[in-house]
Design goal:
two-stranded antiparallel sheet; 132 residues; mainly alpha; 52% helix; 6 strands; 6 helices; 2 domains
Length: 132
Amino acid sequence: MEIRSCPECGRVFVDTGVEVCPKCLQEEDRQFDTVRRFLQENPGVSIDHVCEETSVKKERILKFLRQGRLMQSRLTGVELRCDVCGAIILSGRVCDACVKKLQDVANELSPDSRASRTGKIHIFDHIRDTRK
């Protein structure tokens, strides 16, 4: 059991694998619901307009997109790119083609090399190296 300090409010909390304390997580979920409802009622608006109308910061809305909780297709003025190849994506961090390549690389690695090459960045590096 590890103790962390919340990056949002500074409170100390037990680390459960979530970035923020339970109180800030609850607030983040409330903001997500607000943004989701607004976008359902107003599809195709700009991210700046969503920020103005909901009082949710742009960085938080981008976080929701990166987490895959929102789809970029409901917003204008946002362009998400794949962390691996740079292709335009609608949500998340990696495009479908790179996810497939990541899965293929992970499946190809022997159990011994998997143990020595832990972490996503190593597989990302491998895919980038093979594209050159």
